[in-house]
Amino acid sequence: MSLPYRSSPRRLGVALAAGLLAAIWTPGLAQASSDEHESYMDDHELAVEKLVRKRNIAIPYDYIATLMRLPNAFGEGAACVLCHSSPDPKHSYRGLDLTTCEGIKAGATEPPARPMFEPGDAEHSLLRRRLRNNRMPFGVPFDTPRDSENIQTIKSWIDNGAKDDDFFRQEVLPLFKDRNAFGGMQACTECHMSNQEPPSFHELNMGSHAGIMLGADSVARAQEGLPGVQIVIPGDAEASPLYQRLTENRMPAGIEPNESRDHPNIQILMQWINQGASCD
Ligand code: HEC
Ligand code: HEC
């Protein structure tokens, strides 16, 4: 399985080709590549970014309804409504009804019942997480138990303050170095071993307490004067990306982890939420 570093070879290739074309066709290369983000996008992504997102085109609910009913809408996989079609948990996973606008806004009805987003705030939504974030370890099958003893150990360590104590050193840290701890084929530290990317994904070091507390992207963000992205929030496992990544499958269930996390339809769904999630 080939893995996407933030600038994968394919994207790098696209960016290089775009750079070359720009050098040939436009007088000012610097001007053409002023938006670094855009240079990583393919044509489909670029069209949505420039013609829909930047101009804040109003997204009609009709389009969202179509996305929920469409196979492969967010990358290869079954349509959302196949598994989430009723508020009754007997007929629909998590009692999540994605066939109506009201159902989408209500979220899961099975305990813990909760909305998937607050209208106006896509960034912090559960829905965004579920469409973008791969469950860890990368490539773990979606039906791997999510309440195993090892996952419970991580949860209680975080809920009890995430301290650098004997419990952490003897019970928790070894799990991150163990290939068999959470299912899948690789240990966390095989991909998250230092603050250097590459080789370490998201500059995340899961080999020590200090590394875990430093969080993700600490080097890149330090250049902007920001701290790393916290993956552990002491006292609150449910809110901690580390625990979420061990327990939340990316949707649609079974999607290949290599599918783009920036799929244009994810962007459009998020824009609909940011615009207030209107049912019109
Ligand atoms: C093949 C079945 C299947 C498909 C298709 C599917 N899901 Fe799921 N979904 C599940 C299962 C099973 C769960 C519960 C297990 C879990 O949380 O990982 C779930 C959980 C969720 C949750 C968590 C809700 C909560 O509050 O706990 C969200 C959100 C979600 N799905 C959204 C979607 C979206 C959006 C799509 C379409 C892109 C989708 N699902 C497609 C099976 C599916
Ligand atoms: C085969 C390599 C691989 C393995 C093994 C792996 N990861 Fe990851 N991890 C990734 C990649 C790639 C990303 C970024 C892409 C994504 O989020 O899906 C990532 C992202 C993360 C993030 C998000 C960081 C952020 O910026 O918010 C966390 C947390 C994480 N992994 C935890 C773990 C844990 C815990 C384990 C072990 C159970 C693990 N990873 C095992 C490759 C891996």
TrEMBL record:
It comes from the Bacteria. It comes from Roseospirillum parvum. This is Cytochrome c domain-containing protein.
